[in-house]
Input
Amino acid sequence: MLRPPYSPTRAQLILVTDPVNFKVGGHTYTMGLTAYKVIGRAAVVEMDVERESGYAQQFYAYTFRQGGVGFTANLANLKAAHLASGGSVSPSTVHLAYAASLGTVVEGRCTLTNGTRTSYPAQSMGKITVSSMSIATGSSFFGNLKIKPLTASVGYDPGCRGGSGQATRICTRSTITAGAPTGTEWEAFGLHGMAKAVEGTISTAGVSNGLTVTQEVAMFDSTPNIMPDPTFSKTGATAELKTTNDPFMHGSATFTSTQPPVVSKPHTCTDFKTFADRTYVVHVCRGMLVPDSGSPLTALFDAGAIPLIAQPAQLDKVIYTG
Output
């Protein structure tokens, strides 16, 4: 899902379409489109495609940045909005119009960052008319996605006071991470205070003009099925990353470190179970994550499987201090 860089000091506009289901290769997917912009800056437009199976999710985000798609709206009443792409995102095209339904505009009141009290159209809901929609995914599985959204909501913030835009960090136990932000990342972590863990793979790449694709598979399950408790010592650590019961990942991998851990500075997080704030330090072990020879760790994306290649990795042991 699009995580826009919300700016609490600037006016901003967002359009979110309601989910639409479609089928490819015998599977049912859900599509949604989000457009976001800080007024006066380029818009970010993203089409999200996802498929779920139990506690597992397979997710694809097709994102246009750099001003490839224009996003305009009637800020006086939020009754109309438009998305229009140009040649810079060819062969993809996005041309659609939004019209608010009668009586759906909701008024908001707030104090702007300059101290002025104001009222403004905060949200509306309405219908989408698509004149052209084709996302060149770069994948032979999805091809050019031409799914048309039908309805949407539009929100506007003129620059109200409040909101920091900061994300909350969830308290974890131990975490394995491998990879780089520009390639394929692998991660598994246990949730603090719960016999649950999360594992996932994220792959990011540019596929055509102005378009970036992020693929993600994630699984939320009991810890023994994903990451048994790692073994730590003064001179290193070992850990397993498993995929038992995960329909979108297969195989396993082993993390090994032969270096003494490095202790971080104090951090804070929110307990997922109690929502209380906690303080902690991290014992960081750097080593290698290597696929097991008999059954190598593999992310089973519908658009094409991605196997783990042995690579530098990090194992974090979380020590709570308060």
The two ends are 33 Å apart (CA to CA). Confidence is low (pLDDT under 50) at residues 1-6. Residues 223-226 form the longest helix (4 residues). The longest strand covers residues 117-136.
